[in-house]
UniProtKB/TrEMBL annotation:
<protein>
    <submittedName>
        <fullName>NADH:flavin oxidoreductase/NADH oxidase</fullName>
    </submittedName>
</protein>
<dbReference type="InterPro" id="IPR045247">
    <property type="entry name" value="Oye-like"/>
</dbReference>
<keyword id="KW-0560">Oxidoreductase</keyword>
<dbReference type="GO" id="GO:0010181">
    <property type="term" value="F:FMN binding"/>
</dbReference>
<dbReference type="GO" id="GO:0005829">
    <property type="term" value="C:cytosol"/>
</dbReference>
<dbReference type="InterPro" id="IPR013785">
    <property type="entry name" value="Aldolase_TIM"/>
</dbReference>
<dbReference type="GO" id="GO:0016628">
    <property type="term" value="F:oxidoreductase activity, acting on the CH-CH group of donors, NAD or NADP as acceptor"/>
</dbReference>
<feature type="domain" description="NADH:flavin oxidoreductase/NADH oxidase N-terminal">
    <location>
        <begin position="3"/>
        <end position="343"/>
    </location>
</feature>
<comment type="similarity">
    <text>Belongs to the NADH:flavin oxidoreductase/NADH oxidase family.</text>
</comment>
<dbReference type="InterPro" id="IPR001155">
    <property type="entry name" value="OxRdtase_FMN_N"/>
</dbReference>
<dbReference type="Pfam" id="PF00724">
    <property type="entry name" value="Oxidored_FMN"/>
</dbReference>
Length: 369
């Protein structure tokens, strides 16, 4: 029997299929970084996914690295997101929000009073850009700014920002939150041993020190809203935004897996970056992670229906996340279930703009695919 279209309980939430819509930045928030009616329409169209994980939503001004992304730290942003959660729930769907702090992948034009972005250490991400304003105020890709290292006291303040954002998310009607600890952003900037050379309790050679920040965030969010409403996204062996290999890399991720098992979270979400042009998760690692982590596991990374079913049948994952196919196919669940052809993504309209390439992709049978 196919497992992809069976129901599943993930933390406190029961979903109707094992299909997850992966978080994807679309950069269409309006002034004030507020999710609006168009955002609600976009997610409502995709509500037949078993679970939607929203685009990354910055937890503070400091946490933003891209223009036009919707935040979750102000009252107006909470009200804006309510339109989305209500629309998704009215359509029978479930939705978590991804809590985002980009760390050093930012620019002074996005920061309060032009401050430097923050990271684990004062090391700039080479050959990396964010989406901000250049010296002429023109929006577009710009090289990231030189960061400064967070102090231990400031780390505590960032943890408070995560907690407040999680509480805001529940107020906004989300079924839960996903902590973004992947893709070279702030939390991974602490996990990665090649970058994090701090000499305090939050860094250095000791694995437990480099994991301290991400686990403190996870624990604080779980206490605030419940472990059953808390998920986390990781990118083992990820190389995005100038992340490099380091000694004890596999053991770092497996130690984190063991630690997360004890937290009884809604899920762990692994992102395989091969579809982003980076190296794939090494062969055999998923099985090792699965052995170390006993909770619900989501995997994302270039899946189609056939490969997703194989992973479920072999017990490599409990749920499968699909990214870009959901951009062009709001009815992706129905298309996979009925083996209908898929629309192709228009890459030119993936980021920014209005309805074109966002809410105007056709449902079957109105497609021309």
């Amino acid at each position: 029997m196919e497992k992809l279209f069976t129901s599943y309980t993930v933390g406190d939430t029961t979903i109707q299929t094992r299909i997850v819509m992966a978080p994807m930045t679309r950069s269409r928030a309006r002034e004030g970084d507020i999710a609006d009616n168009l955002t609600a329409k976009y997610y409502r169209q995709r509500a037949s996914a078993g679970l939607i994980v929203s685009e990354g939503s910055q937890i503070s001004v400091q946490g933003q690295g891209y223009l036009f992304t919707p935040g979750i730290y102000s009252a107006a942003q909470v009200e804006g997101w309510k339109k989305t959660t209500q629309a998704v729930h009215q359509a029978g769907g479930k939705i978590f929000i991804q809590l985002w702090h980009v760390g050093r992948i930012s620019h002074v034009s996005l920061q309060k009073n032009g401050a430097a972005p923050v990271s684990s250490v004062a090391v700039r991400a080479e050959n990396s850009t964010c989406y901000a304003r250049d010296e002429n105020g023109i929006a577009g890709p710009v090289p990231v700014s030189f960061p400064r290292a967070l102090s231990a006291k400031e780390i505590g303040l960032v943890i408070q920002d995560y907690v407040q954002a999680a509480e805001n998310a529940i107020e906004a009607g989300f079924d839960g939150v996903e902590i973004h600890a992947a893709n070279g952003y702030l939390l991974e900037q602490f996990i990665n041993g090649a970058l994090n050379t701090r000499s305090d309790e939050y860094g250095g050679e000791r694995i437990e020190n480099r994991l301290r920040f991400v686990l403190e965030v996870t624990d604080a969010v779980s206490r605030a809203i419940g472990g059953g409403k808390t998920g986390i996204r990781l990118a083992p062996f990820g190389r995005l935004f100038d992340m490099h290999a380091f000694s004890g890399e596999e053991q770092t991720w497996l130690t984190l897996a063991e630690e997360l098992t004890t937290r009884r979270l809604a899920y762990v979400h692994l992102s395989d970056q091969q579809t982003l042009g980076e190296q794939a998760i090494p062969e055999g690692f998923i099985e090792k992670f699965r052995k170390a982590y006993s909770g619900s596991l989501i995997i994302a990374g270039g899946f189609d229906k056939q490969r997703a079913e194989i992973y479920l049948q072999e017990g490599k994952a409990d749920l499968i996340a699909f990214g870009r196919p959901y951009i062009a196919n709001p009815d992706l669940t129905e298309r996979m279930k009925n083996n209908w052809p898929l629309n192709e993504v228009n890459r030119a309209t993936m980021y920014g703009g209005a309805e074109e390439g966002y809410t105007d992709y056709p449902f079957w049978p109105d497609t021309t695919a």
